[in-house]
Amino acid sequence: MSAPGVNGSGTLAGISFERIEEAGLNALQTQRQLFYDGWLLRLSAGKAKRARSVNPHFGSTLPLDEKIDHCERIFAQQGLPILFRMTPFVRPAGLGDALAARGYIAFDETLVQAAVMQRAPELPEAAPGVTVTAPDAETFVAAVCDLRGSPPHQREALLERLLHSPLGKRFVVVRDGDRVVCTAQIAVEGVLAGVFDVVTADDVRGRGHATLACASLLSWAWQHGAHAAYLQVDAANAPALAIYRRFGFATVYTYHYRARAGEVE
Question: Is the pTM of this model over 0.90?
Answer without folding.
Answer: yes
